[in-house]
Amino acid sequence: NAGVTQTPKFQVLKTGQSMTLQCAQDMNHNSMYWYRQDPGMGLRLIYYSASEGTTDKGEVPNGYNVSRLNKREFSLRLESAAPSQTSVYFCASSERVFQPQHFGDGTRLSIL
Amino acid sequence: AQTVTQSQPEMSVQEAETVTLSCTYDTSESDYYLFWYKQPPSRQMILVIRQEAYKQQNATENRFSVNFQKAAKSFSLKISDSQLGDAAMYFCAYFGRSRGRGNKLVFGAGTILRVKS
């Protein structure tokens, strides 16, 4: 049982490049989330999808877009990467919006 | 807006001893969930324990227990018989049950726990 799978695990981009982070879960969960984690700070929610076909902004959505491709997959896109987006990105899922979340292993993204 | 505060950036404990990590939160909601997550150096986020606000009984999971003080908006985590594998960053998190838009899991800044052998 893989749980939540994120790809890639590491990526280096140049300022202005675009990039899509992929996330897939095999637990038949309805809700999925994207977070970023910066040094000295807790996780901050970027976007979430309460159920297939819906997406909502979280705390720090600027500079990102998301797509809930189907029930399993929830991607995060950086259209024009900026150094301020250097961070570790986590995808998570939960059975419903109020349930405990299961996290992927994270993607370390560096933007030069 | 809800906030979660972890006032201890770093804590140390001797192996086999007990340590308590503090967490306070601010909310106007009456029904919510509280969680403790563990993040070891591998970076994976692992759910340690959760507490429903409507339950008066403190949650317990093996060596992990919480002291939930709803009136004081306090949610501390006690780790008994500490083990080397407990060394990690611990995050306290809040999730409100109101079904309006913008429901989200709010995290504290984290507490680094070091375990000494």
Detailed description of the structure:
The complex is a heterodimer of chains A (112) and B (117). Chain A contains no helices and 11 strands. Chain A is mainly β and 112 residues long. In chain A, the strands form 2 sheets. In chain A, strands 2, 4, 5, 6, 9, 10 and 11 form a 7-stranded mixed sheet that branches. In chain A, strands 1-3-8-7 form a 4-stranded antiparallel sheet, with no helix packed on it. The N and C termini of chain A lie far apart (36 Å). Chain B is mainly β. In chain B, strands 2, 5, 6, 10, 11 and 12 form a 6-stranded mixed sheet that branches. A 4-stranded antiparallel sheet of chain B has the order 3-9-8-7, with no helix packed on it. In chain B, strands 1-4 form a two-stranded antiparallel sheet. At the A-B interface, strand 5, strand 9 and strand 10 of A face strand 5, strand 6 and strand 10 of B.
SS field, number of helical segments of chain B: 0
What would you call the shape of chain A?
globular
Backbone structural class of chain A: mainly beta
Radius of gyration of chain B: 14 Å
Which two chains share the most extensive interface? A-B, 24 and 24 residues
How does the major sheet of chain B shape up?
6 strands, mixed
Strand content of chain B: over 45%
- Overall radius of gyration of chain A: 13 Å
Quaternary form: heterodimer
Strand content of chain A: over 45%
How confident is the prediction overall: mean pLDDT of chain B? 90
Mean pLDDT of chain A: 91
Strand element count of chain A: 11
Helix content of chain B: under 10%
Poorly predicted residue ranges of chain B: none
**Order of H and E elements of chain A:** EEEEEEEEEEE
Please summarize the sheet with the most strands of chain A: 7 strands, mixed
Element-by-element helix/strand order of chain B: EEEEEEEEEEEE
